[in-house]
Amino acid sequence: MRESILTIPVNEVFEPREGCPICRMRDTVEQHICEYIMGAAMMEPDVRMETNEQGFCFTHFEMLLQQNNRLSLGLMLNSYLENARKNIFEKKGLFFSKKTKSSRSAEIENNCFVCGKVNWGIDHMLETVFTMYVKDGKFRNMFKSQEYICVPHYNMLTVKAAEKMQKGDVAGFQKDLDTLVEEYVKQLNSDVNDFCNSFDYRNAGNLHKPEMEHVRTSIERSVAFLTGRKPRTK
């Protein structure tokens, strides 16, 4: 399949064969969006209207803080808080009941500007993934040789494949996807078991051997596999 503006970014996230490729896809899209909204886009009226309305989730607030542009974030927060104050917490009226206020305030927890843009971007990139899987044997082999697909993205791919792929292509894709996850979770379970057993006095010192790296990292790898996010450790 000839490379194009659509296939190049997909190949880039699948080529490393390390970790979950859909996590890499999400991370790439997230980074671009965070850099975009903390730059010149922060002053674009249409972007500010969306961020004022939607806000950000905790994960993406953290990412925005890592951009080291606290003034830009402060300006967005200032207008977002003003919008929430006036239109939710201080708003009064005949048709604005306590129940309405509660439901509107709950949206603060459930809405995120970055999440919406990331989901849109991934959804479109997955269309290319499914097309490449069917039409490009080289990519299909690259897909099957991935280290693993995390649980959240396994679920996402299962749903999206059924929605976007031809019915005759879904079974083969699902089989390869299931094989990736089944093989990895089996190895991961074994590594965590070895990690726990390493604390037995009879195995003292084994955990620190160079060849036990996969066992030492099994806890963090399990969190990444189960949640789709790498934990921050000291």
Question: How would you characterize this protein structure?
Answer:
- This protein is mainly α and 234 residues long.
- The chain folds into 2 domains: 7-147, no CATH class; 183-227, no CATH class.
- 71% of the residues lie in helices and 0% in strands.
- The protein is built from 12 helices and no strands.
- It has helices spanning 7-14, 21-37, 45-54, 58-65, 70-89, 98-110, 113-135, 137-144, 151-164, 167-197, 213-216, 218-227.
- Helix 10 packs antiparallel against helix 12.
- The longest helix is centred in the C-terminal third of the chain and has 31 residues, at 167-197.
- The protein is globular, with a radius of gyration of 22 Å.
- The mean pLDDT is 91.
Termini gap: 44 Å
- Low-confidence sequence ranges: none
Order of helices and strands: HHHHHHHHHHHH
CA gyration radius, whole angstroms: 22 Å
Topology:
Blueprint: H1 7-14, H2 21-37, H3 45-54, H4 58-65, H5 70-89, H6 98-110, H7 113-135, H8 137-144, H9 151-164, H10 167-197, H11 213-216, H12 218-227
Task: Compose a concise summary of this entry.
With 234 residues, the protein is mostly helical. The chain contains twelve helices and no strands.
Question: What characteristics describe this protein?
Answer:
234 residues, mainly alpha, 2 domains
